[in-house]
Amino acid sequence: MPMPKGIGAEDYSARLEPYQRPHLEALRDLSRRAAPHAREVLKWNQPTYVLDDNTTLWML
């Protein structure tokens, strides 16, 4: 599903179908535990975890 430009990761999650959200939330929880220092942003319409210098760690 294409997302409008400028939305945040929380908005991304809210726009998903109900059956998709639990899977994304599980991955977000794992990501936060693996890299609590990373920021969650959207890149290419995908939740992405980046360092302060915008180095991409991974995308969901």
What's the layout of helices and strands?
Elements (H helix, E strand, L loop, with lengths): L8 H6 L6 H14 L4 E5 L2 E5 L5 E4 L1
Main beta sheet strand tally, sense and closure: 3 strands, antiparallel
Spatial gap, N to C terminus: 14 Å
Radius of gyration: 11 Å
The tally of strands reads 3
Uncertain residue ranges: none
What does this entry look like structurally?
With 60 residues, this protein is of the alpha+beta class. It is built from two helices and three strands, in the order ααβββ.
List keywords for this structure.
60 residues; single chain; globular; alpha+beta; three-stranded antiparallel β-sheet; 3 strands; 2 helices
Quick synopsis:
The chain is an alpha+beta fold. The chain is built from two helices and three strands; from the N terminus they run ααβββ.
